[in-house]
Amino acid sequence: MSAAGPVGEPVGEIVTGEAVVLGLRAASFASRMLAALLDAVIVGVVFGALLWGTSVLLSETDEAAYAAITLAESALCLIGIPVAVETATRGRTVGKLVLGVRVVRDDGGPVRFRHCLVRAVVGLFELWGLAGSPAIISALVTRRGKRVGDLLAGTYVVRERTAARHVPLPPMPPELAGWARTADIGRLPLPVVTAARQFLARTATLNPASRTALGVELADALLLHVSPAPPTGTDPERFLVAVLVERRDRELVRMQRREARTRDLERSIGRG
Q: Once rounded to an integer, what is the mean pLDDT over residues 160-185?
């Protein structure tokens, strides 16, 4: 295995501790716009109904109180309800549900209250106050189609319905099992692990020359974080499999130990 160039990070690809690739592709501009328009229509209907109900029920109320109530209803419809819905559904609104998209953090995790609050507060100005023009410009020039609220909140919108299907790793190569058990496998770069997983899932469809070159490049990238090197003459693809399988198995053992310690702690607390 010879020296290789850097392996780039696939856009929107997240890897779990078990080296499972989760394909999170950024939603298209059109799907985001349609979802936003649908949400805007729903908010408009709810807001209109509240204003109508307020005018009917509080027709005798003085102007100052009526203005305060109207302001509270505006905040409820434009900030309160969107934040509550996105937080409860972990990044989905009615429009996003219909279009099959969802808001996630930049690291692929589910959004929390603070992310939703930042998006909603900023959206009050960029979507409603300025008719969406900053959001459109930002979405067109940023890599993941982020609006200003996403940039400040550290989020983006993904196509939930087209998440990549997980392809299991091949079995551990028998000739490398002993080496893998004793090898020191450091913290592997997530972009490299992602690329290796995708490569192993697509080897049958690759051009033979491209398959060989990419296999060597990925193996060399992982070799920088593994010691000692595998036996001389090891096939790069089988080296990739051995490292990823051993990494997954070690993560599984660590997770099982953590769960066992948690159960023991819960039992000891219960006895106390």
A: 82
Give pLDDT, residue 216. 93
pLDDT digits (tens, 9 = 90+) for 68-83: 888 999 999 999 999 9
Of the candidates 82, 93, 96, the one whose C-alpha atom is nearest the C-alpha of residue 159 is 96
The contacts of residue 218 (CB under 8 Å, 6+ apart) are: 4, 7, 192, 195, 196, 199, 236, 240
Q: What is the pLDDT of residue 12?
A: 45
pLDDT attached to residue 20: 37
Chain segment 209-248, per-residue pLDDT in tens = 889 999 999 999 999 999 999 999 999 999 999 999 999 9
